[in-house]
Amino acid sequence: xxxVMAIVVGxxxxxxxxxxxxxxxxxxxxxxxxxxxAANLLIFTVGGMKRGLPPLIDEGxxxxxxxxxxPLPQALILTAIVISxxxxxxAVVLIHRAYEVVQEDDLDKMRSTDT
Amino acid sequence: xxxxxxxxxxxxxIAGALSLVFYRSLSVQRWxxxxxxGALLVxxxxxxxxxxxxxxxxxxxGEWAAPFGIVLVADLLGAIMxxxxxxLGFAVAVYSLATISRDNxxxxxxxLIHLLLAGVCGAFLTGDIFNLYVxxxxxxxxxxxxxxxxxxxxxxxxxxxxxxxxLLSSILLLVAVGLTYGMTGTLNMADLVGKLAAVENQxxxxxxxxxxxxxxxxxxxxxxxxxxxxASYHTPPVAVSALFxxxxxxxxxYALFRFFTLLFDHDVGYTHEILLWMxxxxxxxxxxxxxxxxxxxxxxxxxxVSQIGYMIMGLALFTPLALIGGVFYIMHHIIVKANLFLVGxxxxxxxxxxxxxxxxxxxxxxxxxxxxxxxxxxxxxxxPPLSGFFGKFIIIRAxxxxxxxxxxAVALVVGLLTLYSMIKIWAEAFWKAQPEAHAERAAQFTAAxxxxxxxxxxxxxxxxxxxxxxxGIGAQPVYELASAAAEQMQNxxxxxxxxxxxxx
Lengths: 115, 504
Fold this sequence. Notes:
Distance between the termini of chain B: 19 Å
Strand content of chain A: under 5%
CATH class of chain A: Mainly Alpha
Strand order of the largest sheet of chain B: 1-2
Oligomer: heterodimer
Helix content of chain A: 55-70%
InterPro entries (chain A): CPA3_antiporter_subunitC, NUOK/Mnh_C1-like
Largest sheet of chain A: none
Largest sheet of chain B: 2 strands, antiparallel
Number of strands of chain A: 0
Number of helices of chain B: 22
Order of helices and strands of chain B: HHEEHHHHHHHHHHHHHHHHHHHH
Family (chain A): Belongs to the CPA3 antiporters (TC 2.A.63) subunit C family.
Structural class of chain B: mainly alpha
Number of domains of chain A: 1
Radius of gyration of chain A: 20 Å
CATH architecture of chain A: Orthogonal Bundle
Order of helices and strands of chain A: HHH
Radius of gyration of chain B: 22 Å
Distance between the termini of chain A: 48 Å
Main location (chain A): membrane
Transmembrane segments (chain A): 6-21, 28-49, 75-95
Protein name (chain A): Multicomponent Na+:H+ antiporter subunit C
Helix content of chain B: over 70%
Shape of chain A: elongated
Number of helices of chain A: 3
Shape of chain B: globular
């Protein structure tokens, strides 16, 4: 399963970088969304993928017996999803406001602050 | 259990929450702004005192012992950075009273300042790399909102670049954290010291180190990743610019210092060589960019970039003296840089423009403002006996001892060019006569500025200028502090021992 996921993650990263390199700010945000999902999937994959092995401890034992799935990556991903959701909501509002103010969605036309 | 470690995080959080409770009452928010940052300053100085006298302070969240629980750790580097953040927070809160418009305060200027400080202090004090990512996000979100309060066109354009590149760097940080966890099975920094050294394929550790380097390189605006900074830092109100200039890039620098002394010192010949090249190019590109500008805030923004180079140079040389120099330089830089932005703000409120071609005659009109500008400006350029001289002196001396002649030459030339930029601002804004074409606007602005606002602006500026003088003239105690911090960085075992106890 891990090799497939690795390819998926790689494809997601490549797609998101491509989208971020486009000039339209809408595509920029789509790129950011894909990027955060790619990062989450990556953490999920490096944590090791196991099916049907909840990390439960049998009665009278101090450790789970046999193999178990690591729950910590999932906690990390959950935190990261919440954070990226908030940040991306901000980014969407930002491009909307920027479009209203600048009347343009082309990044090449937003150069007045560059030096 | 040392609750004093958590105070610098808790106080701004509580202050931020309280300001939100009193969202409709602007005067209450102003008071909370002053009292909250003042309390933060007291708490952080207390924390520094405790850390200096009693060694590294550790607090395990919910009494879950490291490496399983999340710990807050105050070593000297973290405590020093927290004090600097608090000083700057307090200065900017006072300055905001006079300069931030009613509308911006009504839209949450003060709560955002508090939350930004909470994120910054949390990033300085955490002992867990995922937790570091979370704090970085806390401070980023606050900074996004602060950057666009006001909603002008320049702010929107700057914010798009700032938001995109900073999000990219956060996601790279998250990826690096995830890969580190996948490789070692721990997120605790102290635990990682041993676990990373035990990784069989050290090449992979270097790869992850490079991911962290790129991520923190974007945050600290190092070459070639700094382009978001000059495009955005000059757009928000000047009090916000000053806070950003002093604190945000320094979070990246702090993280570089933390990671590349504590965790990634296994292949110094490779990683720190890259850091050294980065440092050199950062200095040169920053200072040359500044030389081409004619707008006060843009000049100062580019100088942030060039100064970051000196700090990274201290880290990259990686000798005890160089690390002392790096810490000393951070202390000097945060205070001086923010102060220059604050002085730039006063210039704007007296003249109605930041453009050097439209302003002038300030020395004749307000000579004390000229003096208050000269102290941080000459300090930034490294004129003795001000703070910048000693920072540069220590770092360059470390470079000479290492016989890294190239970087020493770059550092000296960049110092000279910094002086050129500062003299340019001095000659144009203070020395030459006010250009006739813009005299009317300037006179209007000067007349419209109430004395009370001017006094409120000058209080933090004078205080920061005095601090600069103190760091310069009283360099010895500051040097002692920096060298104690550098000693802790040189010996990761002290940190590991303090966090994990004797079980190691």
